Amino acid sequence: MTSHEAPQIHDFLDRGRFPLDDWRLVETYPRHEDLGVTETLFAVGNGYLGMRGNVVEGRDSHTHGTFINGFHETWPIQHAEEAFGFARVGQTIVNVPDAKIIRLYVDDEPLLLSIADLLEYERFLDFRSGVLQRDILWRTPSGKRVRVSTQRMVSFTQRHLAVMTFDVELLDESAPIAISSQVLNRQDGEDEYHVRSKAMGEGHDPRKSDTFSRRVLEPKYSWGSAADGRVVLGYRCVDSGMTLGVAADHLFETDNEWDQSVQVDDDLAKITYRVNAQPGKPIRLVKYVAYHTSRGVPPRELVDRCRRTLDRAKSEGLQRQFEAQRAWLDDFWARSDVEISGQPAVQQAVRWNLFQVAQAAARAEGQGIPAKGVTGSGYSGHYFWDTEIYVLPFLTYTSPQWARNALRFRYSLLDAARRRAREMSQRGALFPWRTINGEEASAYYAAGTAQYHIDADVAYALTQYLGATGDTDFLNRAGIDVLVETARMWVDLGFWRDEEEGTFHIHSVTGPDEYTTVVNDNLFTNVMARFNLQAAARAVRELAERDGDSYTRLVTRLKLDETEVEDWERAARDMAIPFDEHMGIHPQDQHFLEREVWDLDHTPLDQRPLLLNFHPLVIYRFQVIKQADVVLALYLQGDHFTAEQKRANFEYYDPITTGDSTLSGVVQSIIAAEVGYHDLALRYFLGALFVDLADRHRNASDGVHVASTGGVWSALVGGFGGFRDHNGVFTLDPRLPDGWEQLVFRLTLRGQRVRVTVRHDELELFLEEEGADADGVVVTPTIVVRGKEIEVPSGDPVIVPLDGQGPRLEGNPPPVAGRRRADGTVISAIVPGH
Ligand code: BGC
């Protein structure tokens, strides 16, 4: 296999260690070598609060991690050479005090997983109960057998709440036992034994988080009472001023003799239970934990909120929490499950991925969806276009309320985006490439700020959401402002050249491919900007017709001038779309084809990914792609390309795409499927499916690749299911992989849930749950299947016969080197430095 090809089909996981299970990720023995990866894989979270899968004992770890979405510290970005408009405010998610820790001592010997004699071990994350559980049988150094079972759950129904249980039972002889439950502020990774977390010694990697050498959390409040079983801590971030309260409540149950003590200081609050334990007399500790955060509410008040959360949780009881979690997840799976019969490994991994999207997005409310969700500090907890292009499709068609929340969050950044546009000498609004608080945080502008396409990505996701839900209220109150301000940005950024011929150009921007930066007329940017301009014009014109009052308010609010809308339409119509007649492809940008190609086949594997081994300039000099760019345009704007163009473009770009970003594989899978490379599509899909599960990019320890997990859904539904939504017209043109019996997925269209079953010779559409759109209107779902309009009324399923699964191309696209450019020169392949 050459380095840039999609991986071969095989099972990526060691099934002796991670056995097949439809609804759980199970680990049958722990390994120290990949602790960081399993901490990510077994993380629990709800989009607000996330806890890595650290062992409950708190010692053995790669990275201790508890994260709260949006809870960040700021710092001044020091550029070696300053320039006007460079990002100034660094923003880094804070690793908050760790409430996961419950240490166990038997005969004064600590349970330490890495050295313990474990007679039995099993750990699993259950996607239906939403609980992480570990069961072990430990033989202590003096030979006593102790059963220890622990559970950890971050509640989906109460987003500030986490619940843990800790059960211990001696099987043979009596022994003194101590259980120490803690809330520990580790100060950015360093543990209480002053061991720097393993992750901190791993050298520079731009995909990791920035770390602090100073104190980040100033202690503001601490309190504890052994009798109440409650401890409380409050903090304030030194620079961002954000505040945090954390509290833990304990319920201790046993028939053994026991007592308890409490210790609280600035960075540690703990309750210790000492027990004279007898065999056959079980011990149970239940720990409820609450976190509240704010931009500035005093920590004392947050602590009060924590108390209220805990009082309620405790009075409801443990069982109720588990039941609520289960019911919540039952609903989630009813709306969102994708079933692949006869493919247990795929099935399990698909569910793990979809579960991750829920963990990243469900309760993000008021915040964005970080690139790593709340499972790690990778990319410093920032929000990127990942949300709109990779995560929102899944949410829009399965959990539209969450999509709305994410879009509302973007809307809340509109003022900051307006200011940023001014700073960048532009009208309208320019959303930051990466941010937490709305300010641009990408210090490297060429692969950051220059990605103006973020504006169009937001407009795109918004338009899809509006089309799929009919949420005109959201459009009128928020969405339309985003459309107008982004359209204004494009028309101001671009310019007309050759007035008579009238082409509209956009110069000096970067497309999604970060291996080619600051270019003129990036194809992806131009087609997406065109979409953005058209969508804004349409929305404004429709509003004027539909709702005169809202339109008048809009005109006043945004000082909108009629002629502006005409300008947007004209710019969209005249948009320069680079096309090379000779090669029959769309160049990625105006000068892309002039470069030689990077010879990926002869690049040693130890020099991958390129971004960690070559200076950016070296990379920029070549036709070599980090991630799908033109190919992504073929997917998102597929109605603007012919089938021949799609195939020719895919065949050109696929061999020069490294896939060094995990945002690539899912898109390559979708277009490979569409144009007919069925095997390749499946290989790309499987590669993406196991990105984290098999640590294929060797950085799963930094957190889940959330864009890829969302992309897995897009690859299933958009790639194999062949689902597209262009301007509110829903179409299906399936490409079921050869070895799969059938593929089942759900789409919620205007509040009606349609179950789609793809088989080799037919498609079945069934209205699984009836409903109304956001305005209360009942719209019978209509889906165009290979050109034929099919209505899906309630009642019996509709069966549509299928004549095969689309075109079929074998193998991989041919190499690019050796092809001739329009000017007759031959494209050569080079490995820099060789
Ligand atoms: C990709 C970006 C992405 C970011 C965060 C980068 O490696 O090139 O497209 O937004 O990761 O996931």
From TrEMBL:
InterPro entries linked: 6-hairpin_glycosidase_sf, 6hp_glycosidase-like_sf, Gal_mutarotase_sf_dom, GH65_N, Glyco_hydro_65_C, Glyco_hydro_65_M, Glyco_hydro_65_N, Malt_Pase/Glycosyl_Hdrlase
Family: Belongs to the glycosyl hydrolase 65 family.
Organism field: Aeromicrobium camelliae
Keyword DNA-binding: no
Glycoside hydrolase family 65 central catalytic domain segment(s): 351-713
Entry's Gene Ontology BP terms: carbohydrate metabolic process
Every Glycoside hydrolase family 65 C-terminal domain range: 723-770
Binding site for substrate: W385, D386, K626, Q627
GO molecular function, one term: hydrolase activity, hydrolyzing O-glycosyl compounds
UniProt keyword annotation of Hydrolase present: yes
Protein name (record): Glycoside hydrolase family 65 protein
Location of the active site: E514 (proton donor)
Gene3D superfamilies on file: 1.50.10.10, Glycoside hydrolase, family 65, N-terminal domain (2.70.98.40), Maltose phosphorylase, domain 3 (2.60.420.10)
Pfam assignment, any one: Glyco_hydro_65m
Stretches for region Disordered: 796-819
Origin superkingdom: Bacteria
Keyword annotations: Glycosidase, Hydrolase
Residue ranges constituting the Glycoside hydrolase family 65 N-terminal domain according to the UniProt record: 31-295
